[in-house]
Design a protein that fits this description.
Blueprint (H helix, E strand, L loop, with lengths): L2 H20 L9 E8 L5 E8 L3 H25 L7 E6 L2 H26 L1
Parallel strand pairs: 2-3
Antiparallel strand pairs: 1-2
Helix pairs in contact: 1-2
């Protein structure tokens, strides 16, 4: 990414995060974190990667709420950003958080199993 696309991506990430936190009233959107934004070089599209906490249904509902709010968020960005064209927003669930939590669970299970085996030997 060029320096300009990185700056635009960072600004989009910050602004969308603020709007979701302070202005959006869609009850479907739960605990959402904007993990990163990727903007195309022509500034036409932005992939907004989001981490969502909750059950699978809550995640699906949050993604539906974000997709429904995309035009509002884009309009807000147009007001804030001084650009000729504001990128179209595409929300993508970032599964890195889930992956990290699963790895942590596996590591905790590995820690517990040797201790259980040691106590059985005694």
């Amino acid at each position: 990414m060029s320096r300009r696309t990185e700056r635009v991506a960072h600004l989009i990430q910050r602004e969308i995060g603020d709007v979701i936190l302070k202005e959006l009233t869609d009850v479907r959107i739960g605990f959402v974190t904007i993990s990163r934004v990727e903007v195309t070089t022509d500034m036409a599209f932005a992939k907004v990667h989001v981490s969502i906490m909750g059950t699978d249904k809550q995640k699906r509902d949050s993604m539906a709420g974000l997709a429904h709010s995309a035009s509002y968020l884009r309009t807000h960005l147009a007001k804030v950003m001084k650009m000729r064209t504001v990128p179209r927003l595409q929300f993508i669930e970032d599964k890195n958080l889930d992956h990290g939590l699963r790895i942590n669970e596996i590591l905790n299970e590995i820690k517990v199993k040797p201790k259980a085996a040691e106590s059985e030997d005694e």
